[in-house]
Amino acid sequence: MINIHLIFIPAEAEIHYTAQMLDVTDQQRITTSPVLASRTSWRTARLGKFWCQQHFPQRPLCLSHKNGASLLAIGGKEKPGVDLEWIRNRDVDGLMTHIGSQSEREMLTHSPYPILDFYRLWTLKESLIKAEDLDFPSDMKRVGMARAETGKLQLRSTRQRHYLWLNARLGDNWLFAALWPDIAHLPVTLSLHQPYDSSLTIHDLQTNASNLTLHSNVES
User: Fold this and answer.
1) What's the pLDDT score for residue 216?
2) What are phi and psi of 112, to 5 degrees?
3) What is the DSSP string of 71-98?
4) Whole-angstrom Cα distance, residue 35 to residue 203?
5) Count of other CB atoms within 10 angstroms of residue 157
6) How far apart are CA 78 and CA 147, in angstroms?
7) How many other β-carbons are positioned within 10 Å of the β-carbon of residue 109?
8) Longest Cα separation, the chain
9) Nearest 5°: CA angle at 214, between 169 and 166?
């Protein structure tokens, strides 16, 4: 059984941040740009990184932040990808012109839920960009989703990796995507950790995992 992990840090948790939590790289960044310490997103992301260093030392991680909250994904031997977004109305057609392929634009045109499906696509694209060390936003069209001959959706990866991917809503207003390379065919346990009193639930889950067990709100 492969164990993968997500850690959600709400904006309200920023009060727990201290400079003593910073690793060497972040200490150097804060010395160069001290204004970072006043940003909620910096504080929650570093809270998450510190928590991961205590519980999953030496394991690769990827983080995303939005509206002050942060979501981190823990990998195994290789870096995962993750993206967190706050659901709101967007100019889907206009944005898709810049970041979507022709087939992706057609999928959204025929979608009964264009805003939600836009965010599902966007978060998967950003997760792939992070996992494959690509450039945002210039590489958004290079990655994404395509429909296979079987009718199932599959990822378009620049590295031809077979990722386990998932996206879902977290609570009512968040939507996220996360992916891990080369484990989609294996039994996997996904644990959602919320160490700072958040109690959001994962729902509307979509994934290509063949055997996924979800543990939500794991005790920390």
Assistant:
1) 81
2) -75, -15
3) EEEE-SSS--EEEEEE-----HHHHHHH
4) 36
5) 18
6) 26
7) 11
8) 53
9) 50
The reported pLDDT for the residue numbered 219 is 58
Both structure tokens of 106: 């057609």
Over residues 106-120, mean pLDDT: 92
**Are 123 and 167 in contact, with CB atoms under 8 Å apart?**
yes
Q: What mean pLDDT is predicted for residues 22-39? A: 96
Radius of gyration of the chain (CA): 17
Task: Give the percent of the chain with pLDDT over 90.
Answer: 78
68 Rama class: left (phi>0) / alpha (psi -120 to 50) / beta: left
User: Could you give the strand order of the β-sheet that contains 2-9, starting from the edge strand earlier in sequence?
Assistant: 61-66, 69-74, 2-9, 187-193, 211-218
Please enumerate in sequence order all residues whose Cβ is within 8 A of that of 20, keeping only pairs 6 or more positions apart, or say none: none
Query: What pLDDT score does 220 carry?
Result: 54
Q: Is the pLDDT of residue 184 over 70?
A: yes
Residue ranges of alpha helices (H) inside 33-79 are 40-55
Round to whole Å and give the CA distance between 180 and 82: 9
Identify the residue whose tokens are 């992070």: 130
- Output the pLDDT for position 150: 78
* Length reported for the chain: 220
Q: How many other β-carbons are positioned within 10 Å of the β-carbon of residue 103?
A: 12
Q: Quote the CA–CA distance of 103 and 203 in Å, as a whole number.
A: 26
Q: Is the Cα dihedral 37, 72, 117, 142 positive or negative?
A: positive
Give every strand in the sheet of 81-86, ordered side by side.
81-86, 174-181, 163-170, 202-207
